[in-house]
Amino acid sequence: MVFFFFGNRSCTDWMPNKRVLKRLSETEMIITKKARCEMDCRGLVNEDLLHLLRTGDVSFKESDAQSEPLIYKVKAEKSDGLEYAMTFEARDSSSTLIVVGSELEIDCVCD
Question: Are strands 94-102 and 28-31 parallel, antiparallel or unpaired?
Fold first, then answer.
């Protein structure tokens, strides 16, 4: 019966975390100059952004899904164990990466 309703889809595709990641990954991605600088400073590359959008965990406590634009903070872990987070502004047709952070104590000079 479950297969009848879901077919080949995962039963978790409708969960809030998956829906947010899908929304972010299916819209035009804009990376601000400040966010690009923060990525470079922390040694994060575009593949890390893609990994975060596929497997990340949305921190709903640190997000604001009632604002306009919607603000989502997503956390992930690299293969070397480094934890990092990216904050997005989500609009109807675009998502903008606005803040990048990691567990590394690095003072990035990004304006």
Answer: parallel
